## 1
Amino acid sequence: MPQEIDEKEMYSFAMNMNQLEAENRLLKATVGQLKSELDNFKSTPLMVCEIKDILGKEAIIKVPNGNAFLVGYSSSIGPLNPGDFVFVEQRNLNIVKKHSALSSFDVEKFVIVEKPDISWNDIGGLKKQIQEIQEVIELPLKKPQIFKRIGITPPKGILLHGSPGTGKTLLAKAVASSTNSTFIEIVGSELVQKFIGEGAKLVKDLFELARSRAPSIVFIDELDAIASQRIEIGTSGEREVQRTFMQLLAEIDGFNSLDNVKIIGCTNRIDILDPAVLRPGRLDRLIEVPLPDAGAITEIFKVHSSRMSLEELNSRKIIKKMEGLSGAEIKAVCTEAGYFAIREKREKVCDDDFFSAIEKIKQKKEDDGSIGMFG
């Protein structure tokens, strides 16, 4: 009997020992983690710097306040290139490691990247422009072997020019959709206004992003903001615009016309563009997108009214009254006509709704120039 009690006590003691040892291991791990976190709080934070140039085993880095320093770095960090970002110690500026996230396309934060779903059928009245874009942009992307066999080089890009709201952006999105290309859109005026000191770098990153997402189409809206005729350089802002423009020209010159990247520039002011961007080998194919004539108005009106619930309309009279309106304004007329019907609690849109809408859009056009919607 006493022997049985001893065995039970021994078993219970062993179980308690195992439990205590497990708890002890857990407590040690917790203490170790807390010490590590405490050391992190005590350690000096690393500074993010940009590599400006590489000179053998040394690098010129730019710190956040704008100053530049020449520092050495270990080969174990890996290859470094101008434009890369690195973590450095704040005291001695020693490079600790490369920041891979920042070195990859910081420009993505500032551009629109999408896969458009607009088809050629969604665009009315621009048959000639569509044909030219298909020949210059679509065909080289879909069938580059044709150009290689013939022995000719297609243009690297095109320039769409014309009044606001005539469908330039729609044309660019439609060709991106038809070629299953990534559509990368950036506005020239925003590039200049928002990123003083960074414009040239962002242009470089923009084209690197385009190459990584190929086939892709780079759409630069308001190209005249960075590519207007060069004047005597005075202010720092003007110098920045020139640096950005020169980087744009360098990027256009730097890739083969049969690469899977095409450029589409867009402007309402072709008269002020610098001839350098329009010379052969750059954006040398100019495509004007004019205000629609009567036939084009009819096609655009059909596109935008096709899904509307309509009474029997006097289409000829409506189209006549819309003369002088852009494609975007015709779309706005259809939208406004629908609102007039909704306000009167009708389920179908009638002639008077369209007439009222036309008057409203024309009045707005007189008040502020042009609505300029949908580019």
## 2
Amino acid sequence: MHTNAYDEAWALPTKEAALVALRTQQIIAEETGAADVIDPLGGSYYVEWLTDEMEMRTYEYLAKIEEIGGILQALKKGYIQKEIADTAYKYQQQMENHDRIVVGVNAHVMNEPSPINTLRIDENARLGQIERLDKVRKFRDSKKVELALGDLQHSFQDPKSNCIYPMLKAIKAYATLGEIVEVGRKVFGEWKEPSIL
């Protein structure tokens, strides 16, 4: 089970928020007995019905995507993006009409301010990382990096090639993530999300 920290929508979790999330998991695991059986709700008619319903609707949805020509075509035609946008709009409408209750947002809202302290990354950490990156670039074997990135480019261009090994070779030569991604950008181009209007 995973519990998100309450501040993850704003930033990386603070220690306090991560601890609340962890303690929530621990209480469920240690105090409720939910982890003592394989399926705590197994045999519940309602839960089994929901599972069957979700499975049926999932297969119906996957069939729609197959009719379009598969997930790649669905993405290229903007179908997936439109579905996400439509779902978000419906969800927002349900919240605003109080058809869907979200505690703290449209029900049981507290009027007093409750500021959330978000994690702030120390500027020195950023500068230190840039300094380490500069050192790596200065002391690595540039010819090895160039050759490894060239091999990676050839691998990307060959549809039958496994690009993992050339990518690992580039990493071992101390190519940066940015350099590796740039090779992919040269070969494959940059994804432009289709308009869904």
## 3
Amino acid sequence: MIWGKGLSFGAVRAARGGYPIYTAEQPGVGNKTIGLKNCRNVILRDFSILKGGHFGMLLTGVDNITIDNLKIDTDRDGMDIDCCKNVRVSNTMVNSPWDDAICPKSSFALGYAKATENVTITNCYVTGGYELGTVLDGTFKKRPSGGTGRIKCGTESNGGFLNITISNCLFEACGGLALESVDGALLEDIAVTNVTMRDITNCPVFLRLGARLRGPADTTKVGTLRRVLISNVTCNHTAASYGSTLTGIPGFAIEDVKLSNVFVQHAGGAGPDSPSIPVPENEKMYPNPGMFGPTPSHGFFLRHMKNLEMSHVEIRPENPDARPAFFLDDVQRADFFAITAPSAPPAFAMNNSADVRVRLSRAAADLTVA
């Protein structure tokens, strides 16, 4: 529902016949508040959405679109940007406790694969931490635990994600940033900068190249995830179970990733058996940080990667953690420069990795693995 003057939150609930305000599927309630398909030259500006159904906005095949100064307080996804080109999202606030806040996708909804490309997301606030409706009415009633509420490219990922920037955004009491290619998409040329996160419910950064391959069986092949730059990120009080997870699958590596000026403070506290936790590949599974279970590292779990660079990255657990800060598995050519993390236990654990260098770091002495 688009929120208008003189309509109280309680009146909206009463008008819905008493159905629970958090249930997306209700008799007589549409599945989406705004749905646009195959449109051009669209401006959506200066309005609010309360309880938008499965999609506050579902934009499919919409090119040349500006989204500015919206407030969305909703049951499921705040906005899905699917197979769209030349997209500008700015100055927007989304509270979506049970699903994603801002979610570029690239599905087969048009009947063919089309990339979502040339997208900027800037000056936005995303959260899942508040009771539905309380962001719009200004009471900001916190939920007992945070929600989803994140920025995510995926899960539907057939056509690709190309040329995307995410900048000057705030994440609070929600999932972290997720970039996912599991249905054959080319996910390339992504820049993320100036992001602050607080009370993250899973991990700050999740990059996944997988092989779910939902699409035409004769043409859908494993895609790519490469040329991703992430810089100037601060994350305070994230969950302890999952380190940031960047993982491809055997034979298909994530390539050319650079992270710089990143600070992560997490709860810590994992016990002595944690470093030996096995991590399944789950190549065909729906991508989500919890898909692997707890990670054997508390900072970054890195697997099936090529050409990785991390500089000026600090990992600071609030409580002692028995896991290494970094776990590398099948990582080929990686540079770690000016890394700060606990050195006991050893900050780096490696398996089947080569051409790895650590330099000028407080986490470990200079190290070269040929």
## 4
Amino acid sequence: MNVAVYGRPVIGSQTSFCETVLTILESHKCKVFIHRPYFNFLKNSIKGKYELFDSYEDIKGNVDFLFSIGGDGTLLDTILLIKDSNIPIVGVNAGRLGFLSSVSKENLPLAVESLLKGHYNTEVRTLLRLESNHPLFENDNIALNDFTLMKKETSSMITIHTYLNGEYLNSYWADGLIISTPTGSTGYSLSCGGPIVVPQSESFLITPISPHNLNVRPIVVSDKNVISLEVEGRGQYFMATLDSRSATIDSTYQLAIRRESYCINLVRLSNENFLSTLRNKLNWGLDKRN
């Protein structure tokens, strides 16, 4: 089994955690490819010879799984390495919540054995794609969680004119707007009052951030729609984000969000699914009165 390993250079206990991951993979005779910047961070702490990779082109067709070591933010980074290669992502949680990164240090040996035996499931997750009339995020214009458009250099609210397939929806007077996939429904959108949406729902969520009008609520639309945005405000510049990446734009930008033509696959062990993760990680439906 060929495995690619990705992580963020984080000083602390993650170094020893990654050593454990590599040791377990090697004990099962796996060929390991390590993302070059991550290897440079770890090279004084790990032993052995590893193949290195830099980009999507290096691992497409060459590895069976990509191991993301860290938290959910780290896993979001891997989308740009996977793209349309169909390489399943194994999220190994070295962070806190680990909603997407579901494999813990304790069940890592079992997880590797399950992968070797084929005892696992994959969850298909949709992506969104951002298009703009000016260069923005270049070839990194996809996201697993969400796109956000927010105020940047003023405390005043901004106005975001929003359209579905060219038909006017609303002008949001707010601190910003979140366009999220079902995967992103448990992230920033949820903290702003958006609903939880199951991964298979084929939808987008449009969630305002601190709207001025309290009767403006989050709305769920089909992901067959193209969502177009125009922004204006007292400030000259605004903040646009795709997952953990951000860029500064101005009011001349015209933005469009659509569903990407391909999906990615998240590995789930046989005893895991989206609903059990909701209950275990978000305490969804848990009665605290007892």
